[in-house]
Amino acid sequence: MTRTPQPARREAVSRPGKPLQGYVNTPGDKSVSHRALILGALAQGQTRITGLLESDDVLATLHAVSRLGARVERQGGGQYVVQGTGGRFRPATDTLDFGNSGTGVRLMMGAIAGAGGQALLVGDDSLSSRPMGRVTIPLEQMGAQCRATEARLPVEIQPAPLTGIDYRLPVASAQVKSAILLAALGASGETIVREDRATRDHTETMLRLFGSDISVEADGEGRIIRLNGPQILTGCQIDVPGDPSSAAFAAVAALITPGADVTLKQVMTNPSRTGLYRVLERMGASIAVTPAGEAAGESIGNFGLRYSALNAIDLEPDIAPSLIDEYPVLAVACAFARGTSRLRGLAELRAKESDRLAATHALLAANGVEAYIEGDDLVIEGGTVRGGGSVRSLGDHRIAMSALVMGLAAREAVTVDDISMIATSYPAFIDDMTALGAMIRVHP
Ligand code: S3P
Description:
Helix content is 29%, strand content 28%. The chain contains 13 helices and 24 strands. It has helices spanning 30-42, 56-67, 102-114, 125-128, 133-141, 174-184, 202-209, 244-256, 275-282, 327-335, 356-365, 397-407, 429-435; strands at residues 11-15, 21-25, 46-50, 71-76, 79-83, 96-97, 119-122, 145-149, 152-158, 166-168, 189-195, 214-219, 222-229, 237-239, 261-268, 286-295, 298-306, 314-315, 340-343, 371-374, 377-381, 390-391, 414-416, 439-443. The protein has a 4-stranded mixed β-sheet, with helices on one face. Strands 2-15-17-16 form a 4-stranded mixed β-sheet. Strands 4-5-3-14 form a 4-stranded mixed β-sheet, with helices on one face. Helix 3 (102-114) runs parallel beside helix 6 (174-184). The structure holds shikimate-3-phosphate. Shikimate-3-phosphate (S3P) binds next to helix 6.
């Protein structure tokens, strides 16, 4: 088998109803959940995890680390104990299937290469069309043996000794940075990763929690990260904070539905992830953040959001890494804002779960929003939104959720042809939104 079987399709329709009210217990962060399992599997000893996001993407990583020799035991909802391998993975006898998950497969390529593992990695149709050369190229420079056709999945990794490299990221990608750092744990000598623009830093933060000696230095808009290998991690406790990318859907829904008053609890406030909220505030959003402590080395807060009259924005490209997954739902917010918005420098969206730039444009156009793509920019004429469109989610969870959010405030209902893949990142999305009063109907 080289591709994941696709789940049964389900259509959904969202329409305006009563104002959204209440609170959401934000689901665990996807990025932190993947990393907790992977570092736990690489470490010596036990790692206890609470609040793990039990979504399809994260469960694919969980199954992969189990096949590579980590023992993972579920002790209750989101509670796990991982018995690590001490930095040596055994060869995987079965294919490792990462489903839809770019984070899972890319981080695991680095972890497997560094831990002397041997495996064949596959994914679903969407993941099989996404670029993997951005990870295999630096890993091969370190000495890894990766086999792929045209830099796409399936990728086969064979054990090989690694040495550190000095590498400047050609794309602003936390997945690539993380894959190199995970491989560096098993490489001899110093690895240096240079990023021109700072990307999410959960790997660096969590490596420290696992006892790693890693240095991070600011370098203009970016960072220089150094790690001396080999290093063996020590198991620890990880309480996964709430996911700001998942919270984004209820947040935008609250801002665009008149009378809404919603609290999003325990959201991670790491600035490398909260660009959307800063941008929405610049557009006139009412967002009150109450600090709520720390989890897994990350700060968290409760977010209070009320309906707000939004103004259009001309958004600079440099901010992209801090809201890279939030552009579809930001585009929905822009459709309801007064004036013409321009979201600049979105080339990287073409390499996500779908061509997310084209899919976001199509979602707007299907619902009567005037929008166009100019080079790598998305231009959106805001105002009232007609809705009434049928949106193709194209296997992309964030397109499906963004379209459903749009339907809550459009004049006519919005239909999404398939929402089954929302389970890759936010299995409780429909339940959480309907608990706030959202009118979303799902057809089997
Ligand atoms: C992620 C990094 C981002 C993001 C993805 C999760 C991570 O991808 O889009 O959903 O956990 O490292 P890139 O780093 O490739 O932009």
